[in-house]
Amino acid sequence: MRFGIHTLDEVSVKGKVILCRVDINQPVDRATDSLKSTHRIEACVPTVEELLEGGGRVVLLAHQGSDIEYKNYYTTRPHALVLSRLLGREVKWIEDVCGPLARQAIRELKDGEALLLDNVRFCAEEQTLFEKNLKLTHAQQAQTQVVSKLAPLADLYVCDAFAAAHRDQPSLCGFEQLLPSCMGRLFEKEYCVISQLMQSPQRPCVFVLGGAKVADAFLMMETVLKGGAADQVLTGGLVGNILLAAKGEDIGQASLDFIRKEGYQEFIQSSQALLERYGDKIQLPTDLVYVQGCAMDIGPNTAAAYQRAIRAAKTVFVNGPMGVFEKPETEAGTRMVWDALADTQAFTVVGGGDSVTATKKYGKTQDIGYLCTGGGALIRFLTGEELPVVRALRHAAQVFPLGGDRP
Ligand code: 3PG
Predict the structure, then answer these.
(1) Starting at the edge strand that comes first in sequence, how are the strands of the sheet with 232-235 ordered?
(2) What average pLDDT score do residues 299-314 get?
(3) In DSSP terms, which residues pair with 57 in a beta bridge?
(4) Cα–Cα distance between 49 and 119 in angstroms, integer?
């Protein structure tokens, strides 16, 4: 048991039907019916491999895309192909989540075989809008279609979806009410790395916060400054621009218009308090790169100063690029920060989709201490709140002692 949650070390899986919830949500290319990145799929392979090699019958559940903006909302068929290639064995796939076809396919699984079900969010009860509107308790989630139809076929629930641990949805929090449950290897690893980062980071501990996910970045900034985890916060991207505007610096009318257009005007006001309180710890860009009057990257002096801070740190956490790194004219700031991440002696943690993409683009994957799969979950975790999936797994650890069979 770790963090009050059972681990895979405590279970024997031979001959058992295991429902394994993974987060393999990736950007999709609909035109070619394929995935633009496979980072999260690669990350869950050790858990799936361990379950299969132990002789388990593995049923994988996953969501793909968001029902809120209908972005990347897609079937999990391409994921099964990638998983099969990575595992070197067939992962079956079925165009069903918990209906008769899925249940029959589960019953037909043999020891050491895996089946990936279709996108769980094709079931209304798994959708984020449903979660936000109905706010089902975990006990109610156990009565939903996905959980009530699949749980009777299974012996064990394994959650390896740390990146979705902030979601209060039945495939994440409902099975723990009915089945012995544990976390997978990826969940355990991410939980461990992030807890250590929050509780006892080697100092100086520097947070580099950039990108365009403004609400998340400010939430995280406040949390790590208030809690004392961060000795210094280096800012860039839209986050840096907003802080500069809050300080009354001139970032150009086009940049201000962009902030307004994106609906982030309120952060210019709200971040003033943050600057007043923690101004000595928050570092703002001292120069910027402009394209058509809009600030799109940190300038060379800022990037050089950030490199020095990263190289002098003992722990560095990065979430968000320094500018529009997809374009050659505005990528230098991000590239220089990632160069320093690669050669610093500090323990480095990189989280969030764009930051993972930047890491791959600059070929730094092997140089980063830990590359997190989580974005939203990671941020919620850093705020110190108990994530819904963690609460559900802890409940299962209390109710279903492992080693035994289902009650
Ligand atoms: C993510 O991409 O952060 C996770 O897969 C969760 O996805 P969601 O924000 O659509 O729930």
Answers:
(1) 282-283, 232-235, 205-209, 315-319, 347-351, 370-371
(2) 98
(3) 17
(4) 21
The confidence band for 345, taking pLDDT boundaries of 50, 70 and 90, is very high
Minimum-distance ligand 1 atom for the alpha carbon of 23: 5
Q: Which residues line ligand 1 (CB under 6 A)?
A: 23, 25, 66, 128, 163-164, 167, 375-376
Spacing, Cα 172 to ligand 1 middle (Å): 12
So what's the pLDDT on residue 209?
96
What mean pLDDT comes out for the span 378-392?
A: 89
- For 109, the token pair is 């699984």
Distance 317 CA to ligand 1 centre (A): 20
Q: What is the spatial distance between Cα 227 and Cα 195, in angstroms, rounded to a whole number?
A: 13
Angle at the Cα of 188 from the Cα atoms of 315 and 194, rounded to 5 degrees: 25
For residue 37, the model assigns a pLDDT of 87
DSSP alpha helix (H) spans, 10-137: 39-53, 77-87, 100-107, 128-134
Which position has the token pair 């560095």? Answer: 316
User: How large is the average pLDDT for residues 335-358?
Assistant: 94
Tell me the pTM. Answer: 0.86
The atom number, within ligand 1, closest to the CA of 376 reads 3
- State the angle between helix axes of 214-226 and 265-278 in degrees (0 to 180), rounded to the nearest 10: 20
Instruction: Report the alpha-carbon distance of residue 50 to residue 217 in Å, rounded.
Output: 35
24, 25, 173, best to mutate for ligand 1 pocket (most atoms within 8 Å of CB): 25
**Cα 98 from Cα 158, distance rounded (Å):** 17
Angle, alpha carbons 113-114-117 (nearest 5°):
150
Q: Is 404 a residue whose pLDDT tops 60?
A: no
What is the radius of gyration, based on Cα positions, of the chain?
A: 22
